[in-house]
Amino acid sequence: MVYFFYLRILENYVMQLIRTNSDNPDFKKLSALFDDYLVDIDGEEKDFFAFYNNVQLDTVLVIYENEEVVGCGAFKKFDDNTAEIKRMFVHPNHRNKGIAKFVLNELELWANDLGFTSFILETSPKLTSAIALYEKTGYQLIPNYGQYIGVENSICMKKG
After folding, report:
1. CA 41, CA 33: separation in Å to the nearest integer?
2. Can you tell me the distance from the alpha carbon of 131 to that of 22, in angstroms, rounded to the nearest whole number?
3. CA-to-CA distance for 103 and 59, rounded, in angstroms?
4. Whole-angstrom Cα distance, residue 16 to residue 136?
5. Residues sharing a CB contact under 8 Å with residue 43, sequence separation 6 or more, in sequence order
6. pLDDT per residue as tens digits for the range 20-31
7. Is the pLDDT of residue 70 over 80?
8. Pairing with 122, which of 10, 42, 54, 149 sits 20 to 30 Å away (CA)?
9. CA–CA separation, 88 vs 75, rounded Å?
10. What is the pLDDT of residues 90-101, one digit of tens each?
C-alpha cells in the first residue's frame, strides 16, 4: 500500500513522503548510492553488511523535494515491541536540510502506529553525523545485537 501526502519540514522546503516497500524504484536508486558510499566506509566487510542490507522490506519511506528523490529509510520487525531502523540515507546534494531527522521521525511514528514501542539500529562508527543525529533524537549506545555481535565496525543503538 502506498500513501502520498505533503509536509513542510522547514521553511521553503515542501517534501512529499511515500510509504512503500523496497521494490520502489526510487528506493532502489538511493539504496544503490548508499551501498556505493558504504563500500568506501566498510572496506573488506562490505559483503557482510550487504547481505543484511539487501533484504525485502515492507515498511519503506521515500522522500521527494520538487519531485526529486532526496532521502529514504525503512524499518522491520525485530521483536514484538521493537522495530529495527534500516537504510537511512539522504542524497549528498540534499543534506543539512533536516531530511534525515524528518525521515527518522516519520519511521518512528509509522512503527508506533503498528504497535512498536522501541527502536534499534546499527551504523558504522565512521558515520559520525548519523550517530550525532541518533543521539540527539534519544538513541543510546547498546551492546551489538544479532549478526553484529563481535563486529568491530558496527555501533548499535536503541531508543525506548
Report:
1. 13
2. 24
3. 12
4. 24
5. none
6. 999 999 999 999
7. yes
8. 10
9. 9
10. 999 999 989 999
Q: How far is CA 128 from the centre of its chain?
A: 15
Q: CA distances (Å), 47 to each of 9, 38, 66, in order? A: 35, 10, 35
Are the CB atoms for 70 and 64 separated by under 8 Å? Answer: yes
In this structure, the dihedral spanned by the alpha carbons of residues 41, 46, 48 and 49, taken in order and rounded to 10 degrees, is 50
Give the three-class secondary structure for 150: coil
Nearest C-alpha neighbor of 116 from the set 105, 108, 124 = 108
Count of beta carbons in the 10 Å neighbourhood of residue 77? 15
130: number of Cβ within 10 Å: 19
Which segments within the chain are labelled E, that is strand? 3-10, 13-20, 59-65, 68-77, 82-90, 118-123, 140-142, 155-159
